[in-house]
């Protein structure tokens, strides 16, 4: 099994931009719950999907490890 080493600054060396990207799933969750009054389970699923996409694309996490971490 390949060990995944997380990149601290995956996009151009900007730690602030990386932190903003990492916060996007929480921001999406709060906006869907508070602003759009979406049902909690729909907001949680949308946030989960965004987290999986960000992990696989921005942080280059292998898909098998991404899905394994999601299942845990």
List its salient traits.
mainly alpha, 3 helices, 72 residues, 65% helix, 0% strand
Describe this structure in words.
This protein is mostly helical. The protein has a domain of 49 residues. It is 65% helix and 0% strand. It has three helices and no strands. Helix 2 runs antiparallel to helix 3. The protein is flat. The two termini are 17 Å apart.
Summarize the structure.
The protein has 3 helices and no strands. By secondary structure, the chain is mostly helical.
Considering DSSP H and I runs of 4 or more, what fraction of the residues is helical? Answer: 55-70%
Mean residue pLDDT? 93
- Counting helices, strands and paired strands, the structural category is mainly alpha
The percent range for strand residues is under 5%
- The helix tally amounts to 3
What is the CA–CA distance across the termini?
17 Å
Strand elements, count: 0
How would you sum up the major sheet? none
Low-confidence stretches: none
| Rg of Cα set | 14 Å
Morphology call: flat
> What pattern of helices and strands is seen along the backbone?
HHH
Topology of this protein?
Blueprint: H1 15-34, H2 40-57, H3 63-71
Helix pairs in contact: 1-2, 2-3
């Amino acid at each position: 099994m390949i060990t995944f080493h997380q990149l601290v600054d995956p996009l151009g060396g900007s730690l602030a931009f990386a932190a903003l990207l990492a916060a996007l799933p929480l921001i999406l969750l709060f906006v869907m719950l508070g602003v759009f009054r979406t049902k909690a389970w729909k907001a949680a699923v949308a946030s989960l999907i965004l987290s999986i996409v960000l992990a696989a694309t921005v942080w280059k996490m292998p898909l098998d490890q991404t899905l394994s971490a999601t299942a845990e």
